[in-house]
Amino acid sequence: MRLTKFEIARILGARSLQISDGAYATIKTTCDSSLKIAYEEIKQEKVPLKPVRPKM
User: Fold this and answer.
1) For residues 1 and 19, what is the distance between their CA atoms, to the nearest angstrom?
2) Phi, then psi, of 37 in degrees rounded to 5
3) What is the pLDDT of residue 2?
4) Which pTM does this prediction carry?
5) DSSP run (H or E) holding 46
6) How many Å apart are CA 7 and CA 32, to the nearest integer?
7) First to last CA, the chain
8) Exposure class string for 5-39: b at 16+ Cβ within 10 A, else e
9) CATH class for domain 1-56?
10) Would you say the C-alpha torsion 20, 48, 30, 24 has a positive or negative sign?
11) Which of these, 37, 40, 38, 32, lies nearest to 14 by C-alpha position?
């Protein structure tokens, strides 16, 4: 599923907060920043969150 820039921003913020609060990252990385880790998860499509879009 292709994400819009708004969905990416929302998921990035939510996932970054989860990681900074102690959630485990779904990828192996050496980054220290929770924001960078969350962005890498989105790029590799391994983020455990997905947007819910309204049905038209």
Assistant:
1) 23
2) -65, -45
3) 87
4) 0.86
5) none
6) 24
7) 17
8) eebeeebbeebbebbeeeeebbeeeeeeebeebbb
9) alpha beta
10) positive
11) 38
